[in-house]
Amino acid sequence: MATTKRLGYVGLGAAVVVALLLPIAALIWQFGFEISGKPEDWAQTATVLSGAYGPLLSLLTLGVLFMQVRLQRQTSDHVFEQAFVQTARTDIEFFLVKIDAALDAPTEGGGTARERLLAAFARRTLDELKSEALRQEALRLHASNPQLYSTWTSIYTILISLSWYKNTTYGFHFYTPVQKIVAIVPMKVGAALDNYIWCHSQGELRTEYQFSTILMN
């Protein structure tokens, strides 16, 4: 991609040089390379060259302005993307603190949310997640600790916004936050959270789950 763009710039530069030399080459071809000592010959030559170079330089100026506007737009887009990615990373760090606290919070049924989550939703099949018994457990857990659901779905909302970078050369903008999540939330807990979210929403939350293997397909 970079090589193609570089070759394009080289070709454009060569075309500009040829266009600038063409009027002079035409004059030499028509009248020869003899230097005249007559002022009127120089005046006529200046008139011809100004008529040839006037429109050419105008087009060249427009081309330069167009490239400047394009470069400025690319710079603005890059600055916006960097600000967006930085905000997303900051938000994920904020929600990771929240999810860690929510997992360790006690629940009404006894035990922490992490313990109940792992006991009910770890290592489940898709058919089990569709069962009414697990659905009711998901509702009870949500009633006891609503922050668990809202925080985990907020993290996924951010990941969805970053997923555009996933298959690009800037894929690290997506995978780095995922690695941060894994550092705070172990894979087993993340899979249980995915299963819990899916069970609670009855599969209506459409997202690309990152932890539960049964929901990745």
Describe what you observe in this structure.
The protein is mainly alpha-helical and 217 residues long. The chain folds into two domains: 1-72, no CATH class; 78-201, no CATH class. Helices cover 76% and strands 0% of the residues. It contains eight helices and no strands. Helix 1 (2-31) packs antiparallel against helix 2, helix 5 (132-144) packs across helix 6 (146-162) and helix 5 (132-144) crosses helix 8 (187-201). The radius of gyration is 33 Å and the shape is rod-shaped. The two termini are 32 Å apart. The model has no long low-confidence stretch (mean pLDDT 84).
Summarize the structure.
The chain is an all-alpha fold.
- Would you tell me the overall average pLDDT? 84
Task: Let me know the largest β-sheet.
Answer: none
- Distance separating the two termini: 32 Å
Tell me roughly what share of residues is in helical segments. Answer: over 70%
- Outline type: rod-shaped
Strand content: under 5%
Task: Round the Cα radius of gyration to an integer and report it.
Answer: 33 Å
Regions with pLDDT < 50 over 5+ consecutive residues? none
**How many beta strands in the DSSP annotation?**
0
Encode the helix/strand succession as letters.
HHHHHHHH
The overall number of domains is 2
By secondary-structure content and strand pairing, the structural class works out as mainly alpha
Compute the number of helices: 8
Task: Offer a few descriptive terms.
217 residues, mainly alpha, 8 helices, 76% helix
What's the layout of helices and strands?
Blueprint: H1 2-31, H2 39-103, H3 113-121, H4 126-129, H5 132-144, H6 146-162, H7 172-184, H8 187-201
